[in-house]
Amino acid sequence: MKVHAGWLRGVAMRSILPALLLFSLMTQAGALFGDDTLSLDDLVAEGLKANPEILAAQARAQAAGFRIPQAKSLPDPMFMFGYQNEGFQTLTIGRPENANAMGMSSLSQMFYYPGKRKLKGEMATRDAESIAAMYDEARLEVASKIRQLYYDLFLAYRTVDILNDRAGLYARIEDAAAARYSSGMGSQEEVVMAQTEKYMLLEKEEMQKQKIQAIEGMLNTAVGRDVNAPLGRPVLAGPTPLHMTLENALAAAQDHSPEIRSKKKMVEGAEAKVKMAQKEYYPDFTIGASYFPRTMGLPDMWNLTATVNLPIYYKTKQRQAVAEATAGVWEARRELAATQLMVASNIRDSYSMLSAADKLMKLYREGLVPKANQDVQLALSGYITGKIEALTAITRIQNLLDYDLLYWNQLVEREKAIARLHTFAGELSPAGADERTRSPEEGGTMGGEAR
To answer: How many domains does the structure of the chain reveal?
Structure first.
């Protein structure tokens, strides 16, 4: 009996110590997670204002807008001044016998052939609009990235909760195994098996905590905060409703996707370059006026001049420039077609993932999880009464754990698919199209004449 009592004390200590360790880790988890909740909408709003990539894209769009009035301007006028002397021996200005010695000055201005200034402005405008569309694309990408990191962070927290909850089931198996062993109905192997499963959950929990730290750093970076800035716990009330069909999403992308809009502006800019190259067959001209003041009573002199360039090398210059610009149009059109296909493909992919997630979530929620939970309860009762083995009960707990995690994984994948879907459709908010990104014509962010 003494040996048996000592053995019971050993079993009790082996059972109590892991329980204390589990309690300690759960307490640390509460300190780590905190009670503050993290608002997704607030994070997105902050990221749209502070993300460095967005700010850089905004500066590029503003700089491109300031290039428009420059492109429309005439070249700077040229002012010339000098002195004309007769001979090299001495200065001859002011001598009656050297009437050609005089000062001189002239002013000239080059003018483009009619239509060229307008085309130059059109090319700069299309380039600026394309860059402004990429600024809108950067905003969409950052908002989508913040949302997806937020959902990943939520999943990591939710996984820790599930692991903690399921650890309690393994603790019940461990207690029952110890009781069965002490009564001679079970083996010590069953106690060790239950403890091992519980320790494996603790290992997974620590890995999830490390994942939380990593995601928080990436989320802070995406928002534009210091990497060590504190974050609360993300919340997700339930699946986000989808307010568009596949056909609506595809149509919205063609009209509002900043990436497609940028490519369209590039096509228009390339077409303007073709017209500009064709205009280069026609010469520009320069108007000049000169004035020559003279001394010793001699009358001052002046003249007016007109200078034109002669495009006589058109076979190797203008004609080749037109061919180059035409090839650029074909390139821009094919890039537009490729972008449209890519966006449509991404939308279909996200929509299919969303549909699959809906079906799997329903399967887990209404079928597998309730059934697995029922199996676990029956297994626990059966093991305590000695009707089933420990391995069977542990396997059913593992099944329940897997189904729980799979359900929340599908929920998060669904939310991420919705975020991507609205990004491809050109919308900032998954709630609807009320926050659709604005085109330059609707009030973009370009500087200069593109405002």
So the answer is: 2
Three-state SS letters, 411-446: HHHHHHHHHHHHHHCCECCCCCHHHECCCHHHCCCC
SS3 113: coil
Q: Which two tokens stand for residue 183?
A: 């009564």
Regions of the chain short of the pLDDT cut 70: 1-35, 180, 183-187, 428-451
pLDDT at position 446, please?
39
Yes or no: say if 358 and 411 are a contact pair by the CB < 8 Å rule. no
At 441 the pLDDT is 37
Owning domain of residue 287: 76-111+283-312
How far is the C-alpha of 37 from the C-alpha of 231, rounded, in Å?
8
Whether 138 and 150 map to the same domain: the answer is yes
Please tell me whether residues 172 and 302 are part of one structural domain. no
pLDDT at residue 151 in the model: 94
Give the 3-state DSSP-derived string for 323-391, with helices as H, strands as E and coil as C. Answer: HHHHHHHHHHHHHHHHHHHHHHHHHHHHHHHHHHHHHHHHHHHHHHHHHHHHHHHHHHHHHHCCCCCHH
Q: Is 227 exposed, middle or buried (0-12, 13-18, 19+ CB in 10 A)?
A: exposed
Same domain? For 57 and 161 the reply is yes
Residues 391 and 287 both lie in one domain: no
Largest CA distance in the chain: 144
Question: What's the token pair of residue 238?
Answer: 């339930």
Strand order in the sheet with 78-84: 78-84, 102-111, 285-292, 301-308
Same domain, 425 and 444: yes
Q: Tokens for 8?
A: 């019971």
Q: Beta strand 301-308 with 285-292: parallel, antiparallel or unpaired?
A: antiparallel
**Neighbour tally for 15: CB within 10 Å:** 19
| 258 and 393 inside one domain | yes
